Amino acid sequence: MVRYRLITTLDPDYAAEQELRNRVLRMPLGLELSKEDLRGEDEQLHIVGLDERGQVIACVLIAFPGAGAKVRQIAVDEAWRGQGIGAELIQRAEAVVRERGMRRVLLHARVTARGFFEKLGYSATSAVFIEVAIPHIKMEKDLPPAASTGSSSCCSA
Predict the structure, then answer these.
(1) Residue 116 burial by Cβ neighbours in a 10 Å radius (0-12, 13-18, 19+)
(2) Could you give all domains of the chain from N- to C-terminal order, each with its CATH number?
(3) Would you say the pTM of this structure is higher than 0.70?
(4) How many Cα atoms sit within 13 Å of 35 on the Cβ side?
């Protein structure tokens, strides 16, 4: 079972989140997360997925440039893929975005992940471009208004 929670850059799990993103997103490209990649993360939303031992096995980062919301990175440990964890992370991130009164999320998807995001309701809004040395495409999704439940629907503390 996976438990989801919000963390900050001061949380002890932040180092494990960085390691996961580096291993899943950068190392396969012959790259490493840089100080530039990490700049401004203290102002971003971090949701992590933890396994039964409390190990970080998935994460998503959401930035809030201007009045918008942008999925910056999403990573799921290879051993945990295919179980709906990535989709759950995106849905939880969207819930926080809605709770903040925003109605649109954008992201730059790796071309290989386009189908994943289309299944979640995202639409391509650009031609293919190169980012972090590989082909990406800009995608967006309009969100319905937040349901007023009185509490956050994202994660445990």
Answers:
(1) middle
(2) 3-102 (3.40.630.30)
(3) yes
(4) 0
